[in-house]
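TL;DR need structure tokens for one chain.
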Amino acid sequence: MAIAGGRRRDKVAEARAARDELAGALRKAGIQFPAMDVRPFGYADAPTYALVDLGRCSPQVVRALAAVIARGAVAQTAHGS
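>> reply
TL;DR here they are.
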């Protein structure tokens, strides 16, 4: 059971790391989500997986995020990726 519990904790740690990566990238783009949280699912003491909850955003934040994504997509297309 210790191995399974470790894997479950890894899921939460992975979700937290992904959340932190996104928050850092957004900060560099001048965008801040009001709330981003990790929500583990499964048993309280042994989650089987975890999701990153991006929370609620104002229309201005959503438009800023869309613009950054669009610029990145255009840059990727220009580089032939």
